[in-house]
Amino acid sequence: MKDIIRMKTSLSEEIESMLNNQVKMEAKSSAIYLAMAAYCDQLGFENSSDFFFAQADEERMHMLKIFKYIADAGGSPISPEVTDVPQEFESFRGVFESALEQEIEVTKAINKILTVAYKDGDHATANFLQWFVKEQQEEEYTARRRVELFDVIGEEGIGRYMIDQKIAGISAPAEAGPTE
Ligand code: FEO
C-alpha cells in the first residue's frame, strides 16, 4: 500500500520525512509561543503577551503551509503530536532569549532540508523553502533585536515596563540599496 502511495509523489522519502519533522517543529514553536504569551501575561507584560499570541498564530501558519505543500505534492502529511511544551520560564528576559534560540534552531532545520533538496535536484521543494529562508532571516533579526532591548534599556526601575512598550515596535530590517 505504501508503495502505491509513494508512486504518486515526487518527494523522496527523506524529504517527506524532513518536511513532516518541520511540520512538528513549527507546531511545537507555536505551542511554546502560546506558553510564553501566558507567562508574560501573568507577569503583567501585556504587549509582550500580545506579541507571543500573534507569534503562536504565525508558527501555526508556517505549519499549515508545509503540511499543505506535502499534501499538494502527493505526499502524506502527518498531523503532529506536540509534547513537552515548557510552561515555566526563568525570567522575562529568559523568554526572549529562548525565543531567539528557537528561531535559530528553526533556521538550521530549514537549511538542512534545503541542502538535501538541492542534492536531490528537488527544485520544487527548494523553491518552496525559499519563502522560509527569508522569513527566518526576518524572525531571527527581530528576535535578536528584542533581546538587545534588555541591554539597551536595562531592567532597572521602569526598564521592564519600557521594554514591554518597545517589543511590538520592532520590525524586519529595510532592504539596503538605492531608494528609487
Ligand atoms: Fe516558523 Fe519562526 O519558525
Question: What is the strand and helix layout of this fold?
Answer:
Elements: H1 2-7, H2 13-43, H3 46-72, H4 92-120, H5 123-153, H6 159-167
Helix pairs in contact: 2-3, 2-4, 3-6, 4-5, 5-6
Bound molecules: MU-OXO-diiron.
Keywords:
180 residues, mainly alpha, Ferritin, 6 helices, elongated, binds MU-OXO-diiron
What is the general shape? Answer: elongated
The name of the CATH architecture is Up-down Bundle
CATH class designation: Mainly Alpha
Approximate helicity band: over 70%
> Number of helical runs?
6
Gyration radius, to the nearest Å?
Answer: 19 Å
Q: Hey, roughly how much beta strand do the residues contain?
A: under 5%
Description of the structure:
This protein is mostly helical and 180 residues long. It has a single domain (13-167), classed as Up-down Bundle (Ferritin), CATH 1.20.1260. 74% of the residues lie in helices and 0% in strands. It has helices at residues 2-7, 13-43, 46-72, 92-120, 123-153, 159-167. It starts with a helix and ends in a 13-residue tail after the last helix. The structure holds MU-OXO-diiron (FEO).
